[in-house]
Amino acid sequence: MERTKIVYYLVGLFTIMCVRGQEKQHPPSELQFFEITPNLEYGYSRPSFLDMLKHIPGDITEFGKFAFQKEHLIWTGASLGATILLLPLDQQLMDESIRLGSGINFNTGHSYGNIGPFRVIPNDMNSAVYFIGNGGTTMLLSGFFYAFGTLGNDYRALNTSSELVEVLLATGVITQTIKRISGRQSPGPAISSGHPGGHWTPFPSIKAYQTQTSNYDAMPSGHLATFMATITVIAANYPEIKWIKPVGYTLMGIMAFEMMSSKVHWASDYPLALFIGYVIGRNAAKRRIKIKETRRYGENCIPGRLKTDFQLGRFSGYQTLGVVFTF
Mean pLDDT for the chain? Predict the structure, then answer.
């Protein structure tokens, strides 16, 4: 039990470092600006409560536009291509993941304790890793950003908090729609019933999906899409913090492996999930950021460099020699 608490402490520390580690400016105008680089600032207005809800239809629409725009077809094709390439290897990769995971108890299922009516306390590290992609982690991060944003009057943190709820709901709508269309069987029941790679039942009935969910909800991974959207939002709002992506992607990779070794997802469930999460997170964050480019006095000068030009001329009939120094 003590090990699982570390996960929550790390999440809290992650948020504290993001919010308090920045130089905040609070001008009296509508926008607050935060320095990203010496020549770039991000401006934010104070979000309203409904912002986290009213943009969800736009997120879904923008995802569809992004996926089919000519300049983005390479990314759509890459996610679909990776899915197709992984499909024949799914069972082999699954077997190897189970073998490797058995050495670290990553294939023993997931167990959670209750806080009131909610089962949200992982009982072991295996369950804690799986919980990373659960909506509870995204909501916990959102709550921390909201708390620090409110206490510090920090519009960037408040917008990040709002965006995290927004992407959680938007990715849920998209992934659930695709799951109910594809009807792909999860590894657990597929292995038990002798279906290598899992069977496909496109458009399963609502009753079948609700009563035997694991037989139809593998493709794409909602956990991976949610966590990718979460990391994308935080990294987009705090680009000057260089460790967010490496740490986030490392955790995401560990979670992806854990879900395979515990027979929750196939490897081919992942490319589309990553694509969905990235696009939704990117668009949600980009919408609220006002970019201001600045140019500081003397920034084009190179310290210690002096340029000298000699010029010949005539003045009142005399030959002159001029020297121009450029700093």
Answer: 84
Which bin fits 153, alpha (ψ -120 to 50), beta or left (φ > 0)? left
In degrees, rounded to 5, the angle at the alpha carbon of residue 146 between the alpha carbons of residues 144 and 149 is 110
The residues facing 323 across adjacent strands are 310
Strand bridging mode 318-326 / 112-115 = unpaired
Q: What is the DSSP string of 96-158?
A: HHHHHHGGGT-SS---EEEETTEEEEESSHHHHHHHTTSHHHHHHHHHHHHHHHHHTT-HHHH
First to last CA, the chain: 64
Q: Which two tokens stand for residue 112?
A: 């959670």
Question: In a 3-state reduction of DSSP, which class is residue 161?
Answer: helix
The residues near 214 (Cβ < 8 Å, ≥ 6 apart) are 185, 186, 188, 189
Q: What residue type is assigned to position 231 of the chain?
A: I
Burial class (CB in 10 A: 0-12, 13-18, 19+), 274: buried
Task: For residues 8-35, give the mean pLDDT.
Answer: 55
The predicted-structure confidence for 27-73, as pLDDT tens digits, reads as follows 444 899 999 999 999 999 999 989 999 999 999 999 999 999 988 99
User: What is the number of helices (H) and of strands (E) in the chain?
Assistant: 13, 7
